[in-house]
Write a structure and sequence with these properties.
The structure is a single chain. By secondary structure, the chain is α+β, with helices and mostly antiparallel strands. It folds into three domains: 3-83, no CATH class; 88-147; 152-335, Transferase(Phosphotransferase) domain 1 (Transferase(Phosphotransferase), domain 1, Orthogonal Bundle). It has helices at 12-25, 77-83, 114-126, 165-181, 233-244, 259-273, 277-303, 307-314, 317-330, 332-335, and strands at residues 3-8, 31-34, 45-49, 58-63, 66-69, 88-90, 100-102, 105-108, 135-138, 144-147, 152-153, 201-203, 212-215, 218-222, 229-231. The strands form four sheets. Strands 2-3-1-4-5 form a five-stranded mixed beta sheet, covered by helices on one side. It has a five-stranded antiparallel beta sheet with strand order 6-7-8-10-9, with helices on one face. Strands 11-13-14 form a three-stranded antiparallel beta sheet. Helix 5 (233-244) crosses helix 7. The chain starts with a strand and ends with a helix.
Amino acid sequence: MHDVLLISGQGAVAVAREVSRLLRDAGVAHALLEGDSPADPSHRRSVRADVSPGGAVTAVLLEGGRRLSLPTTTGDAAEIADLTGWIERPLQGGGVNQVVRAGATVRRPAGPWTPAVHRLLAHVAAAGFRGAPRAHGLDAEGREVLDFVQGEVAHYPLPDHAWSDATLREVGRLLRAYHDATAGCPAEGPWYLPAREPAEVICHGDVAPYNTVFRDGLPVAFIDFDTAHPGPRLSDVAYAAYRFVPLSALGNGEAVLTVAEQARRLRLFCDAYGLPPAERAALPAMVRERLHALVDLMRTQAAAGNAAFAQHLSEGHHTLYLTDATHVTTHATSLV
């Protein structure tokens, strides 16, 4: 399959040449064509300039049998080169995966669980949930293709807005909306994490600031659904509370809150989610369960040769989680 970027309009030749230069500087192999020159069989990608004069500069991508008009607002070569998706830029974070942005999409390693995750994302989108990316299958390299969600992802040490009460409330509302949107979603796997009973919802599995997109200082979407799996609502709620309150004795670079302040913020979060009293009482035990399960997963994956999890262990992440699990257990009655 030969992919072609077709640039038309006044000055198309000059724009195409500049786009070609930018692609070449980024290491993207391609041919530069003008007018009716034939495609270069030595390259699967080409930039073609329409030499007919007139009109504003437009760009159309002919890729995989699809014709896609690129939403260029300026006709600027740098904007067009970026919109092609041919230039890949590593994204901050990524955790245990290598994640890149390619134009308006994100490319991530796929796994046996990817089809189930893509069904989930299609299901919640059809249910009206807008706080997650849409999936677009796999690319030629076998990576999953997802929407790039505009905004900023919070990474440790977190920015101040990630600790605001407004953020805490909005995460609670967003998580509840996501859980409700999973109603009726097929539970068939395989999933990265095993399904758990009661399978009330499809849990995200890793609701945390580093998997949350912010705009104007507030959460608007969750990303990285690799760890999604059927399970109880409380499992997701407990882990999200651990990360966003946070329910920590050591912290991740932020000031450690008093138990009284942790309890106040936990109430805000649970109120925003709409968690009933019985589940609030069970939340500390679920936090402990989730943190111990996380440490078990890290150790199992590291023993299997996963370099990212081995690094987490060498950096002492497991010590943080086990210490925090003890902290939440010790102060359970005060927190809820």
